[in-house]
């Protein structure tokens, strides 16, 4: 098998070390980085640093490049757009690509009802605007998010985010009228409960939440990740999601699906919420939407989206021509290359490997995935399931030093998540999974299979 990883130096190499020293002098510590190397070029699922070291990418710019790095079709479209015009500001002089993108996305989004779409710059902006739209429509203020959820780093989205460190610590006071409801975590359900009992319990907890914490009559929106991303790739059961949706419908609450990390074929569907057979009122999108070009959006019911007056939504760079052009190409690539189906195939391969690793290593457990959104947990042992953040960090570091870009996640920092480009080749996937196994083997205890 051809080897795609190529290591000329230790990581970071001499050139990256020089850049790292410059970075330490001029860039705040608060902006983190997982790999100490500096990129020179990237194509598909391969990344080359300034010292000529080549990595296989299992991080995908935190789920931003589902169609791969520098996809030729995206690059060509952006070059053409650059030659025509870079920016006019949609609120100054409009352009067709914005309209075309809105048409395509509203057609793809679930729900047999009229829809509209508005575009912004980042995932956090999309969530902020979804909240604004919901409040404007309902004339209510309350917002419900969920434990372990992540929605951004702005004031509102930071408030909605569950993990305190590093996202919220000493950054308060936070936005008012934000409430966090319980969210299922099947791997950590009480041992005495069956799966069915736990499902019923969590639903009951949410119903009680609307009595003990906030009245549904004051709630504008419930914002839910169909699969929690930063929270550890936690997949809820269908009954829970559907019951929350029903409660929203019964009480005039806007149901918002936060698809920023889950969208654009990652789970084997354009939108992960499709797995749960419901049609959200609003959907927030970003990350892989633009193949690395900053763009985000809100798709939703026309009567909700159209309630705001001119000037109440948008921004200088919102839905830029470059972002819209890139997003149109992404949608075309997903369809042409059948990336929804590819995500299912990749997910199956990854989960098979993860199950093998779980059987082999005492500290590997909690294997789960939806499409190509896959994860496992690193614990002290399978009996206690105690999260082991330190061991997880060691595994990630060893993987990077071996040429595999890897990410951790989870409220306890003990989840290894996989977000490789969906265009990764079978050989690259196999090589990357082998490096992951080697990295785990170097840190944890080997079991007898």
From TrEMBL:
Catalysed reactions listed for this entry: 4-aminobutanoate + 2-oxoglutarate = succinate semialdehyde + L-glutamate; (S)-3-amino-2-methylpropanoate + 2-oxoglutarate = 2-methyl-3-oxopropanoate + L-glutamate
Pathway: Amino-acid degradation; 4-aminobutanoate degradation
Pfam family, one: Aminotran_3
This protein's UniProt keywords: Aminotransferase, Pyridoxal phosphate, Transferase
Protein name: (S)-3-amino-2-methylpropionate transaminase
Superkingdom to which the source organism belongs: Bacteria
Cofactor(s) it depends on: pyridoxal 5'-phosphate
